[in-house]
Model the fold of this input.
Amino acid sequence: MNREYPERPVIGVGGVILLEGRVVLIRRRFEPLAGRWSLPGGMLEVGETLEAGVSREMTEETGLEIEVGPVIEVFDRITYDQSRRVQFHFVLVDYLCWPSGGQLQAGSDVDRVVLADPSALQDYNLTEKVTEVIGRALELAHQVTKELRDGNG
Done:
């Protein structure tokens, strides 16, 4: 299936990987959003579960093996060309993730990878949606941690 000018939406998976109070960000090498900082992620492959896809993509793009947590959000990312044709249409499923192994390094579709302080996200010129997803992930991580601490998890 073509990612650009698709016949139907493409399913993508992404992750907010939290490590030592910071968030893993990648700078994209290819369109859409080439050269922009974002969350790691990519296309789901045929026959692959969502969780397996996010695990594979996180390792390919960041070098980290991860534990897949709960879904943060499901949303559309639709990009139009100058003639208002749909150039890209992704349905994205973002997960909260924690590293379980590997070494942080830029991989496959990535120029650079960083651990960003959540209070300095403005330095990375993220899209509004990515910033929202990271905010939700931090709230969810706090909730999960509290439930585990309180013995409810």
About this structure: The longest strand covers residues 64-80. The CA atoms of residues 80 and 86 lie 5 Å apart. The beta strands are 10-19, 22-28, 37-38, 41-43, 64-80, 86-102, 110-116. The radius of gyration is 15 Å.
